[in-house]
Design a protein that fits this description.
By secondary structure, the protein is α/β, with parallel strands linked by helices. 31% of the residues lie in helices and 20% in strands.
């Protein structure tokens, strides 16, 4: 395979054996045409380019370039793209996920056009021109050569994007350790209709290379940078978080004892965020982590809670596409990356989120929600059905294809004023068919095999006590209208007022 192997040690930041087009950020930004479609690296708000987006913003504000870029990321990205460049008016259209307040506001006031997409199929959608046809791939790396790069803290969709784009611009970041190369397992899938199966039989298997390769004729610019990712800020677990964690742990321990798939070697996935991080950390002393085989992780992001599990010996391996860590988590991993190179594997998103592998490994998926309705439908993206929060991300891949799908959420929002269990969600991201259980601080609603009204009774019991009588009243009234799934649209809407 083209690109450096690691047997002889880590490569130089910038390959010295060939003449590479090393330029400043402003020069690289000027090479991106007005109105271009730019595919960028980054997933979990890490591993995204930083210097060139800021240069694009400065040029836009100065009037040296026209606004109107289409930006396609692999997942969420940080402030340089989704705050600074958006504030400058440099972004006209955005896919598939936003995570900053600035980008969120721009999408909701429709100054930036946005289309939400899942993650597993995104590489193909860009690679084959179905969603976007990128003019430029702008990606971050820890090392680069004439026809290869080594990604930094995320892999995401980078392998597909550098192949799909007409030109490639690489930011090589000296603040990210080159040892990250030892985490990467890059596989580029064959195109349909003759796509070969993915040759992974366990989450820790390595079947690829540390490098992403590309046509050397497409390398337009290399920009040297020296800036860490913005860290995640995980809040300390609240009493509510701990109660949810306890209920989830009890539920999973029961599954561990009764379900032969979960019982052999539990393989988990958690959504990104403070609640997911708290849930990971709470499993350290559970029967799942202390069993003969320990836990495995097959998901999208590595968070601090997974490092805690690895350090405690409760996690055998963690496979993901991104290192979404706090400042302390970054310090821990960067200070001793060799400690984790046997335990952490970073893959392209079309592999980390591949439905066939989620099914093959019997993944237990645990993701959060904005609201859940009485019948098990889940809204994870829109407040009151209209205001985008972020995007569906990979939850759609895991919830649909997991062996066991769990939605974990606080029973209330807005300081207790709003119930997250509602008669009907205002926006559906995950249907009742894909949700096996809902966990709140008040209990577990195991929905498997239940009729709609039976599911509703279970979910009323998991709602906050202050809202149960109203929810039960709605359900009782809706039942009078008959039907397999009793529903009163007017009452469901009025219930929120």
């Amino acid at each position: 395979m083209t690109g450096p192997g690691l047997d002889a040690g880590l490569p130089a930041r910038v390959e010295s054996s060939s003449s590479l087009p090393v330029v400043g950020a402003e020069t690289a930004a000027a090479a991106i045409p007005d109105g271009a479609t730019v595919a960028v690296s980054g997933f979990g708000s890490v591993g995204d380019p930083k210097a060139v987006p800021r240069a694009l913003a400065r040029a836009t504000v100065a009037g040296d370039r026209e606004p109107g870029l289409t930006v396609v990321s692999g997942g969420s990205v940080g402030d340089p793209l989704d705050t600074t460049l958006v504030e400058a008016g440099g972004v006209d259209r955005r896919y598939p996920f936003v995570a900053t307040d600035t980008a969120r506001q721009a999408v909701n006031n429709r100054s930036v056009a946005f289309a939400d997409r899942g993650i597993a199929g995104l590489s193909d959608e860009v690679r084959f021109g179905r969603l976007a046809d990128p003019d430029v791939a702008l990606v971050e790396a820890v090392a680069v050569g004439r026809d290869w790069l080594i990604p930094s803290t995320s892999v995401g969709q980078t392998p597909a994007y550098v192949r799909a784009a007409d030109e490639v611009i690489v930011e090589v970041n000296a603040a990210q350790p080159r040892e990250l190369a030892r985490f990467h397992d890059i596989v580029v899938r064959d195109p349909p209709p003759d796509r070969s199966p993915l040759d992974l039989t366990a989450p820790g298997d390595r079947v690829g290379s540390p490098t992403v390769t590309f046509d050397p004729g497409r390398l337009r610019a290399v920009v040297r940078t020296d800036e860490r990712d913005d860290p995640y800020e995980f809040r300390e677990p609240t009493e509510t978080d701990r109660a949810i964690a306890a209920n989830l742990t009890d539920f999973l321990e029961r599954e561990h004892a009764t379900d032969p798939v979960v019982g052999v070697t539990p393989t988990l996935q958690f959504g990104v965020g403070s609640l997911g991080n708290a849930l990971m950390g709470a499993l350290a002393d559970s029967a799942l982590a202390t069993g003969d085989n320990g836990l495995r992780y097959y998901g999208e992001v590595i968070q601090d809670g997974l490092l805690d599990l690895l350090d405690a010996g409760g996690l055998a391996v963690a496979s993901a596409t991104s290192l979404a860590l706090s400042a302390a988590g970054q310090d821990r991993l960067f200070a001793d990356p060799e400690r984790y190179t046997d335990d952490i594997v970073l893959r392209p998103s079309d592999v980390s989120n591949a439905p066939a592998l989620i099914d093959r490994f019997g993944v237990v998926a645990v993701n959060s929600a904005i609201e859940v309705d009485l019948y098990g439908h889940v809204n994870s993206t829109h407040i009151e059905g209209s205001r985008l929060v972020s995007g569906v991300g990979g939850s759609v891949d895991f919830n649909r294809n997991a062996h066991l799908t769990v939605v974990a959420t606080h029973a209330t929002a807005a300081g207790g004023d709003i119930s997250t269990v509602v008669p009907r969600v205002t926006h559906v991201d995950h249907t009742e068919h894909d949700v096996d259980a809902v966990v709140t601080e008040h209990g577990v609603a195991d929905l498997r095999g239940l009729s709609p009204t039976e599911r509703a009774e279970r979910l009323v019991d998991c709602a906050a006590p202050a809202f149960r009588s109203r929810l039960q009243g709605y359900l009782d009234d809706a039942r009078e209208g008959g039907g397999h799934l009793p529903y009163d649209p007017e009452a469901a809407l009025d219930w929120r007022r």
